[in-house]
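HUMAN: Ready with one sample?

ASSISTANT:
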Amino acid sequence: MEIKWNKTLVIIIVLLLLNVRESIAQEGVMLLTSGWKFRKANTIEKWLPATVPGNIYSDLLANKLIPDPYVGCNNTKLKWVDECDWEYQTQFTINSDMFLRSETELEFKGLDTYAKVYLNDSLILTADNMFRSWKVNCSNYLKNGGNYLKIIFKSAQKQVEEQAAKLPYRLPSGDWAYIRKPAYNFGWDWAPTLKTCGIWKKIYLRTKPDFYIENFYFKIAELDESKAEVEANFEVNSPKKQQVSIEILENNSRTSIIEQKADVQKGKTQIQTKFKISNPKLWWPNGMGSQYQYSLSCRVMNRDGKLIVIDKSLGLRKIEIVTKPDSIGSSFYLKVNNKPMFSKGANIVPPNSLISAVRDNEWIALAENAQRCNMNMLRVWGGGIYPPDAFYEACSKKGILVWQDFMFACSMYPWDSLFLKNVRLEATEQVQRLRGFPCLALWCGNNEIDEGWHNWGWIKQVDTIPNATRSIWSGYNRLFNELLPSILKNYDPEKFYWPSSPQFGWGRKESMKSGDSHYWGVWWGLEPFSVFKTKIPRFMSEYGFQGFPDARTVLSFSKDGKAFPDSLELLSHQKHPVGYQTIAKYMQYTGFYPKTLEDTIYFSQVVQAIGYRTAIESHRISMPHCMGTLYWQMNDCWPVVSWSGIDFYGRWKAVQYTIRDAYRPILISLNINNEEIAVNTVSDNQTPTDGELKVLVYNTNGDILKRWINPAIIKPNVSEQILKVVNEFNIADSSNTFAYAEFESKDGEQFNTYSFYCKQGNLRLIDPEIKVKVDNENNLIITCNHPAFYVQLSSTLPSFNVDNNYFNMLPGKEYRVKMFGGDIKDLVIKSMWNYSKK
């Protein structure tokens, strides 16, 4: 690697994975997470032990004062918790005079949400934003020896009412808009109403060193295959005017990239240092190349010999979002390192309604599951929270690009000066924190607010009030078209900003022609899945369908023994107003008529899988018109019937296995009827793939009625039809017939799909006679005598899992499945035949 100086700066992209380490010039640090107690505020009730980080619901549950909000109907019985104020307190002792000699800060990483903080009975902080951290100079309030820290949390709903009263009308359409707290805490059509409060992140007591560095990040000034020009930016905080030495090292080789001197002033001095990397190794999204990151260290030393070392990982990549007018409307797609990319991914929500309970491994699992499912993008939805660094680090390692919403969703928001100041500080903090991760692709202002204002009747709610509509829309523009873009211009100018998602709603023709789309004609509009084949936008950033979670998950929250749909516990875990009725309609559309709860769980998952496969296949084979598909939603925040592919306990539904297959680098799409047979393919590979294409027509007994076998070459990064023939074969009985297509590459990799002549629920199935054995490595070897569809491997064991499930089987083939946390004696194998024969 050849490194050279260069003073030219042409800003293209920010790339960075942050991991800070300070040595020698290190402050004293005390973690204040132990010894906490809580009680209802303004009472003389007994103090009870609390957990920090934590929240009021978890603390009440641990002290057996409330039932588990995730079980039965309990979540509907706990409104009183939200209506109370709560107080927390702890004591800590300072034995060292380090904290008394220096300027000392209390740093609160996260307070939920309206909090007054007292140190030794003195008010030192009033917090009002769950998305911010807080630092308070407490030097004048600390005592040598024992210190007393108390935090009083005000009811979020009380604060909502106070803020709402400042306007002569209620803003459409959600209470969450009035406070900077996650919208989903107020309840969603997949989330319970749990308006938490508490110390949701860690608290530190720190001595502030007199010599330190802040806001270190890299910018990529120029990047191509031959060279990268990189700029290191940081602030030096110095107690005096002096000269410092700066060195940047490549850690793996211990090569010195830069050595220079710089003059700094008393206080803060902005430093910019530039260097070149020849023949750079590029960072690529999953499926396009490796996720290489350079390991670098920056060493800054002052004249007194105080040394600061900051370690960072640098990923070199260039991202563009192309919104170019064309004959249809306007494109919307990503180019990474000058190569167009079809975005394959999902929307994510916070992994728990009690967000303080989420550990880093749960955020990391989202990136890992995305990679396992051949994804290259996740969208962080604007009604949740900004994830921790661990999530972005994992996405950067796994090659998962992040579409990052700011935390605004589905409501108009205030625009007064105090609110906008609060948002400015929040957004600045989050942008500075996230701008350097190589996975971060774009910022989006909000979720569905522009669409809601113009097309969901929000204007009618206030249009009789003088000046209301003009004031509210003017406030929207100040927030999303002025404030947020100005912050990005100052702190992350290279990133693309998209004011609101979607650009146009699903009921408007423009939504198929330009920008991104949320298509909810399927589900909300009760349109059949076949509509996905014709309603194809330029970039589909939301669509979906509900399915029940795993039967073990259902049992975790519903044990009343009542039959579906009469169980109040099941109703409590369906937050969409007509969710169960909608699932039932689509099961009927598909020919399924479940009689038991077990049937309903299975068939709802099968129908969900059919819907997502139809959508993804339609989007992918329509490239380059459509260049992205992000389904709603990957995960859940509690055990619930929802649109997710992975339930709250991490168990994959049938749809997640289908998504993994539909997102593979090569997709085969088969359409067959009495007139013709057509096979379309799309490949994300960078080179052509040679192989053989087979198309076979079977009856449900497993007899091959017709076959076509042809050599085929699947071209890279293109969708094309590789087979179209007249179907001379007469289908006498559509309920007894199906088609199968398989492409096998020369290296033996297989890609396949099925097509049916009738509704899948109308197939006349026979017992597939499935047989299974297990080898020494716990691999299941499964065969059948007759075709089997959506073969389900299940067990009542909590830890049971498999690496493939809900798959189709043909006679004469052997299917190998890896089993985890189970034994063959506990294994239950069923298929669509078992559930349809009743």
Q: What stands out?
A: Confidence is low (pLDDT under 50) at residues 1-25. The first helix runs from residue 56 to 62. The first strand starts at residue 13 and ends at 14. Residues 319-662 form a domain with the TIM Barrel fold (CATH 3.20.20.80).
